[in-house]
Amino acid sequence: MKIKGLNLNIVWKNKNENFELIESQLQNQEADLFLLPEMFSTGFCMDAAEVSDKNEESLEFLKKISKEKNAAFLGSASVEVDGSFFNRMYFVKPEGEVTFYDKRHLFSFSGEDKIYKPGKERVIVEYLGIRFLLQVCYDLRFPVFARNNDDYDAILYVANWPEKRVEAWEHLLKARAIENLSYVFGLNRIGTDGNDLFYQESSHCFFADGKEISEKNGNLVSAELSLEELKDFRNHFQFLNDRDDFEIKI
């Protein structure tokens, strides 16, 4: 499976400009799955009442571009549902099927937990035979929530992770891959946001042994995922058989 992530310099609070920017930068690109950053249509913004999708604008854009490119799309957006706000990740398949995951671990350091509601479910979606665990940004710091119970093959993280803490981002992505014998693709935004936070290019894809397998070309980062190669690795190194059993209470 071919995955491409767009290191987007998100235009602050401007959905239409971001939609146009994404279409322009992906114009001649092909992949099975495209990744967009956390809150790709607005930037990581706490002005939820102002910027959140009231009519699923970001989702409709994903459905449109997914159909046009005959590829799945993943990204998160600020959404309002019945008077509550969520940082919602969408996985959209080209035939129009939608799976969503609401970010579980809200970034209290920026007050996200005061504005948005946490998700209540751990979400895995299968596409082209590969099972993906869906995660958003700050979720990366909580390994228990991502623990592989032999129920997924890859973890997808989308983020707005500032440059000043980027070393933690990169180390934790690799750690999640190694400890879970899983592919891990982490996509971050680039540029400077409306809060004057700078984001450097720091998107990566790691194989289950911790080796980076991504290639970078301009604002795109790409990787090839092989389920057969992953199965061979897991059959040889059967570390998941020795894992501790536990239950996560949400």
Short précis:
The chain has helices at residues 15-25, 48-51, 57-69, 112-115, 166-180, 227-236, and strands at residues 2-6, 33-35, 72-81, 84-92, 98-102, 124-127, 130-136, 154-159, 183-188, 191-192, 198-199, 204-206, 215-217, 220-224. The chain is an alpha/beta fold and 250 residues long. The chain has a single domain, classed as Carbon-nitrogen hydrolase (Nitrilase/N-carbamoyl-D-aminoacid amidohydrolase), CATH 3.60.110.10.
Describe the structure.
It is built from six helices and 14 strands. By secondary structure, the chain is α/β, with parallel strands linked by helices. The strands form three sheets. It has a seven-stranded mixed beta sheet with strand order 5-4-3-2-1-14-13. It has a five-stranded mixed beta sheet with strand order 6-7-8-9-12, with helices on one face. A two-stranded antiparallel ribbon has the order 10-11. The mean pLDDT is 98.
